[in-house]
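> Could you send the Minor tail protein prediction when you get a chance?

Sure thing. Input:
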Amino acid sequence: MAEPLSYGYPNAAITADRLPVWQQPLARFTVAGPDDWKVSALGSLDRGIRVEAGTGSGDAVTDITTPYETMSLPKPDVAARWYLIVRRRNWSGTGTTTLAAIVGTTATNPVLPSRFNEPGSRSDQPLALVRVTQANSTVQQIIDLRCWAANGGVEAAHELALSYLAAPGAAVKIGRTEHRYELQANGVWGWRSYQLTMDSGVYTPVWSGFQWRGDTHISKGSYWVDGDKVTVKAMIQSGRNPSLGLGNISFSLPPGHPTAADFMSVGTGVHSTSGTGGSLRTVVPVAGPGQSSATVWVDKNPFVSPGRAGYGWGEGAAFHVQIEYRRPPLFEN
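Output:
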């Protein structure tokens, strides 16, 4: 196993071109790229793992490893056990950085075990949790614990990484949630989570296909966008003297958010009637590829319109639907 090229230990040469911007001081531990120090299963070794080559830093030490490294984990003394894979930094002498595995929990839902956490003496940078079993010679599960930092932001692969990133003022994005380590009302520091939504809003869906929606009917809709995924909720409630008819009922999707041109999307919904003998029945909203509207069906064989299924449409009756779909790219080259 090749020794890593390390910068930041005592007596090591440190130059501006050797300390990437992402190392200082955005996160205590980071890796440089999406595959740097990534841990994966290696079937050719007994309970083997492979750690990709790359660059990472922790506690003001930057390490560059090449080529990839491999490790065979012990056969557990119980049915299953987790191991924490770390980069271990040791400041004794001129300083060394090595790959190590720490024995962890047997629980199905793991937590990080104790590790060296003394910068300037010995410190472990978590890379992954790996689950092995007695019955299988291959790794059964890997939880990525790496994080990336640049230009004032930190991104982590899994929420378990928060346990080693906790520090007053820390802000870590995982998926579409930002986690901030804040002073709580009880005077204790802790993580607080904030859901990130790229876009959201309300609109008035245009419903069609009714014989008569009813005077003073009500139509409402809301939506939120997460990347290329759009989630829409829409409803219509009949007014006075309504008539459903036998036509195909449809509603418009939010303006500027049509479906992508590749897949059909299916949602969920209910048809409700009020008053004596009121009922709830299921309906299925469907949006075809490249469409700006969705059609409401009843799950018969084949699908039929609500009117042909015998659904009522008295005053106060309503459709409530939700559908999720992929939208076209915002920008195309």
